[in-house]
Amino acid sequence: MTLDPDVLVVGAGPAGAAAAIHLTRAGRRVLVVDRARFPRDKVCGDGLTTGALRHLEALGLDRTEVASWREVDEMRVVAPSGAVRPLPFPRGLGTFAAVARRVDLDAALVERARAEGAEVHDGHAVVDARVERGGVVAEVEGLGEVRAAHVIGADGTWSPLRRHLGLAVPGYRGDCHAFRQYLVGTGPTAEEALWVWFEEDLLPGYAWSFPLGDGTVNVGFGIHRNGRMAVGDMGDAWRSILRRPVVTRVLGDAWEAEGPPRAWPIPARVGRLPLASGPALFVGDAAAACDPMSGEGIGQALETAALATEAITAGGGTDAVAARYERTVRAGLARDNRMAEWVLPLLRSRRGAEAAVRISGSTPWVRRNFARWLFEDYPRALVLTPRRWHRGAFTGPGAWVTPGVGGKPLPVAPHRPTRPT
Questions:
Q1: Using CA atoms in the order 277, 278, 279, 283, what is the torsion angle rounded to 10 degrees?
Q2: How far is residue 176 from each of residues 179, 203, 306, measured CA to CA in Å?
């Protein structure tokens, strides 16, 4: 049997699910396949920026269906010296920051895609793919042959679709690496805000603690491959970080680990890997779209998915669609991430990190706007791209402008802890 959707989407994470939702709303027949079965966990810091939240709202996500959803209204940044700078988000103007487990968020987006009319087959891997007669032919485990005019690769850093089509980048292992663990029983201070620590040995990376709505916190750290710390030293560094006074003052010392720590690579070189080739468009981690400064990838995944579907629905041949997609990504997201790269050298030294934290907390206006800039409330390179200027670009509301809900967790069932590690 041969299946013949208009668009095949490979990967049902946020980028793939978002692409499916946009395409079905535009009247396209969409088939989504993923080798994993949902719900499935995805190693991540679980933080959701303002940019990501606006995309999720547009996709019709129901936050009450995401069990671990937690809205947060303040970030606290800790300099290498231990100085703490509170960076509040605007109050009463919607949601500017949230945290949710990927196992919950991704499953909710998959169900949203199904509800919109996409045909989703989880537990089915693409085992081969080729370009043929202006479209793509894929062999999908358990489904057989799939023929589509377009294929969207949303299948991660080491995209199997990219490899099947001969577009893989040999030796690429990510630009950053991160380590995270879920903890329960932390001190009350950990529940109050998003915490970020700029520790000297991690620069230009950082450590974090993000509270979830199910009583746990996501705690971890990220480093750059060309930073101070070698990837092979991350395990020892993790054990050290959990004992550092600046961290234990927030987490306490009575916490329990929900499970073992896990590590993952972060691809952050959008525009320097092939974004499209013939009928194939790559989005999210498969496009290496993560932010090179923060490591954030969900907002970028949702952005590339939206741009890919706009390119497809605008019509034209496969070459025209591919060119349109590449052009829009390079004109926007790639420039935003390039600006983040320009900021990175300032954070490579202790002096630079201290200065950045000091400046971020210098006045109430700077504190509010620094938080908005960090959390992608507006495009990072907005000042360099006048075509994106509009009234309220720097002062607009967040997502879900509903009075009285910001910063409060929704009622959910707690997860069961395990023994301490």
A1: 20
A2: 11, 12, 25
| Residues written for the chain | 421
Q: Report how far apart, in Å, the C-alpha atoms of 365 and of each of 16, 64, 91, 379, 396 are.
A: 38, 32, 13, 19, 15
169: closest CA among 21, 298, 282, 1? 282
Supply the pLDDT for residue 172.
87
CATH number of the 67-100+176-266+342-410 domain: 3.30.9
Asked whether 372 and 49 are in contact (CB, 8 A), the reply is no
- In the structure encoding, which two tokens stand for residue 36, read together? 């994993």
CA distance 194 to 210: 5
Q: Integer distance in angstroms from the first to the last C-alpha of the chain?
A: 50
Residues 58-116: tens digit of each pLDDT: 999 999 999 999 999 999 999 999 999 999 998 888 999 999 999 999 999 999 999 99
* CA distance linking residue 30 with residue 61, whole number of Å: 19
- State pLDDT tens for residues 165-221: 999 988 888 899 999 999 999 999 999 999 999 999 999 999 999 999 999 999 999
CATH for 2-46+101-172+268-331 is 3.50.50.60
Q: CB of 199 within 8 A of CB of 241?
A: yes
Quick check: 384 pLDDT over 80? no
Exposed e or buried b per residue across 141-153, where buried means at least 16 C-beta atoms within 10 angstroms of its C-beta: eebeebebbbbbb
What pLDDT score was predicted for residue 134? 79
Distance CA(234)–CA(202), nearest Å, equals 10
Mean pLDDT value of segment 220-229: 88
DSSP 8-state secondary structure symbol assigned to residue 92: S
How many whole angstroms separate alpha carbon 370 and alpha carbon 180?
25
The residue ranking higher by pLDDT, 404 or 272, is 272
Overall pTM > 0.85 = yes
Domain boundaries, given as residue ranges, for the chain: 2-46+101-172+268-331, 67-100+176-266+342-410
Using the CB atoms, write b or e for 353-385: b if 16+ within 10 Å.
bbebbeebbeeeeebbbbbbbbbbbbbbbbeee
